[in-house]
């Protein structure tokens, strides 16, 4: 027997309860999420095929996307539109529309990275971001945000550390710290640039 609208509402509400609690009052009150973009990862896409999902499961999956406070604006809008449409619209969103919208959010995120980049010190980031935008495919855009940005920033940070080491006037303590950092992970390089170099005494 086809479920009633009330029964479906109860199913979605129960499924979303944890997400709404984590989302905070802004989302629970119905405000739209910020324009910050969430990058889909393998864990986001894992799960049953859309073809194998029941109509209720499809609606719950979309409702979870809407309730996620990190969902980007384009994905959020596409999800809302799908929920207002037919079940065919909703299945299309999960199979295809979501990823088209995600690419739009990814382009916005990369454009913001470029807008805040310093042409003098962020050359690798600018180069890789522009290459991703020029390629303009969902896979390349997402790859930049998932891994390319981190690696490009590490390349720029390594150049910054090398410039510190090239300064003959730095202290022995700062030189030792910079030598440790330059061969470190992207996160260790970033920490040294932002914090570590200023914590060195002498």
Automatic annotation (TrEMBL):
Ranges of biased composition (kind: Low complexity): 31-51
Key word Nucleotide-binding present: no
Keywords: Signal
Taxonomy, superkingdom: Bacteria
Annotated signal peptide: 1-28
Positions of region (Disordered): 31-53
Pfam families, per the entry: ALF
UniProt keyword annotation of Disulfide bond present: no
InterPro entries from the UniProt entry: DUF312_ALF (IPR005506)
Identification of the protein by name: ALF repeat-containing protein
């Amino acid at each position: 027997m086809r479920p009633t609208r009330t029964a479906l509402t109860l199913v979605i509400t129960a499924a979303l309860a944890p997400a709404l609690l984590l989302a905070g009052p802004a989302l629970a009150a119905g405000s739209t999420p910020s324009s910050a973009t969430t990058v889909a990862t393998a864990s986001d896409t894992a799960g049953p095929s859309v073809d194998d999902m029941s109509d209720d499961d499809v609606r719950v999956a979309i409702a979870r996307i809407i309730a996620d406070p990190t969902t980007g604006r384009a994905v959020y809008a596409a999800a809302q539109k799908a929920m207002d449409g037919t079940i065919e619209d909703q299945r299309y969103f999960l199979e295809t529309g979501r990823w088209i919208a995600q690419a739009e959010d990814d382009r916005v995120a990369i454009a913001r990275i470029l807008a805040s980049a310093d042409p003098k010190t962020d050359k690798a980031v600018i180069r890789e971001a522009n290459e991703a935008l020029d390629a303009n495919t969902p896979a390349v855009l997402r790859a930049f945000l998932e891994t390319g940005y981190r690696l490009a920033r590490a390349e720029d940070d390594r150049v910054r550390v090398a410039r510190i080491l090239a300064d003959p006037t730095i202290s022995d303590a700062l030189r030792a710290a910079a030598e440790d950092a330059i061969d470190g992970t992207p996160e260790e390089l970033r920490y040294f640039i932002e914090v570590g170099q200023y914590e060195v005494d002498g």
